Amino acid sequence: MNPFPLILSSPSGGGKTTIARMLLDRREDLGYSISCTTRAPRNGEVQGQDYHFLSRDDFVSRRARGEFAESAEVHGNLYGTLRSEVDRVFSAGRHVVMDIDIQGARQFVAAYPESVLVFLLPPSAETLLGRLMGRNTESPEAVLRRLKGARDELAAVGSYQYVVVNDALDQAFVQVASIIDAETVRHRRVPLLEDRVRQLVDGLDREITKYARAT
Predict the structure, then answer these.
(1) What homologous superfamily does CATH list for 5-10+13-123+161-184?
(2) Residue 14, Cβ neighbours under 10 Å: how many?
(3) What's the pLDDT band for 172 if we cut at 50, 70, 90?
(4) Orientation of helix 140-154 relative to helix 125-133, angle to 10°
């Protein structure tokens, strides 16, 4: 198998994190890239398991050296995905699952052009609004930011290879899993395909010659 990154994006509340976790729990051919962040660990979080917790200076230095496949600043903290983490999962023969926003996806695809992009779409505007506003714990300014962010993300749907409507969670999971299976066997992802085909053709030619002589 020739592993590739699977990028899941959606507006806030679209289900990308939930489906990513379901995929990782149910499939052995997938692995997760541990992200880096400059924020402080929360209660129960483990260094190198939940995140790689870095100082801001260390993060900025690594980014300057080109070590990140994607990075962004969110609410004053830096987040990013190290190329070495992606390669670690690849070296185990597994696809990398990424649940990231559209800005991160654009950066990641520039670093890994073989990425498969899946956009998870809510079934209706009412459902999306309900998910965005259902917490009832955020200020009007925060809700406005979330609404504008969702609008911007929806405008990027056309740049994704696949769109899955997340109406029923289990059904959406099955569709994303089917995408992984289909992409795994696509001819450009089969390693040494030309060599394999040539060997098969050579074998057939030998048999054809043998049978031609016998007739």
Answers:
(1) P-loop containing nucleotide triphosphate hydrolases (3.40.50.300)
(2) 26
(3) very high
(4) 140
